[in-house]
Amino acid sequence: MAAAKGACLNHVSRESPDVKRLAKFYMEIFGFEQVESPKFDFEVIWLKLGSSFYLHLIERDPNSKLPEGPWSSASAVADPKNLPRGHHVCIYVPNFDSFVQSLKEKGIEVHERSQPDGKTKQAFFFDPDGNGLEVSSQIPVL
Prior knowledge:
The chain is of the alpha/beta class. The protein is about 15% helix and about 30% strand. It is built from two helices and eight strands.
């Protein structure tokens, strides 16, 4: 028996020096909606996609000793070709081809590939803070 029976994903968080800019990106690109969030002594924006996927954007602590995400948006390794085996969050999009085209039209560098089954298309890219993202043409089958 699993130790956390009934567990499910609650949210994904991203730290950013500019949470408003990052929120705008996720709302424009994916259609996230801003939802009410608690008041902290630092800036936070909570976003929701669909009925159950939440993204918490949290102002980066200027005194933090932690590195800035897996990649910095200005890093030389911030090439979407590195993402299939790197840290990323994947979101299914039903209109895969037109969605990927819209990313390219916005000037977002995209790395496209297909899974070995040849049925599932994938596109990898970065948000403005260098966080890895993937979009997929297939809903996961359990």
